[in-house]
Amino acid sequence: MPARLDHTIVHSRDRFAAARFLTELMGAPEPKPFGPFASVPLENGVTLDYLDSASARIVSQHLAFLVPDGEFDEILARVQERELPYWADPHHERSQQINHEHQGRGFYIDDPDGHSIEFLTHTYVTD
Ligand SMILES: [Fe+2]
């Protein structure tokens, strides 16, 4: 299938606050203004376009980021420095822990709009 995800829209109450939450955790450059969006380009060519939502209710999305081990350690350190809540599981049962599933490590954190952000060091996908 010769199609690759190019970009997607992430609804938020404050597009730059939401985009910065992610870029600051990742140690990535500032989000870029692009039309009505605050854009966050990712390593694999996908861009997350944060958009201020016209609706008061934002439907939570799940965004999972595959990162190398060193970056995972840096991201986790930033989360812990900020004393942010995080979980080893998507159901928020194992608080302030990481998991060692899928031959790697991972954890979940909610962004300011309730989107479920996951950082993991090894993809779920196996051959
Ligand atoms: Fe996931």
Could you explain the architecture of this structure?
This is VOC family protein. It comes from Streptomyces flavidovirens. Residues 4-122 form the VOC domain. Helix content is 20%, strand content 28%. The two termini are 17 Å apart. It has a single domain (7-51, 60-120), classed as 2,3-Dihydroxybiphenyl 1,2-Dioxygenase, domain 1 (Roll). 23% of the residues are buried. The protein is an alpha/beta fold and 127 residues long. The chain is built from two helices and seven strands. The mean pLDDT is 96. It has helices spanning 15-26, 69-81; strands spanning 7-12, 32-34, 37-41, 47-52, 62-66, 106-110, 116-120. The structure holds fe (ii) ion. Residues 62, 64, 118 line the site of fe (ii) ion. Fe (ii) ion binds at residues 62, 64, 118.
- CATH homologous superfamily annotation: 2,3-Dihydroxybiphenyl 1,2-Dioxygenase, domain 1
Uncertain residue segments: none
Helix and strand sequence:
EHEEEEHEE
The set of bound ligands, ions and cofactors reads:
fe (ii) ion
Can you summarize this structure?
This protein has 127 residues and is of the alpha/beta class.
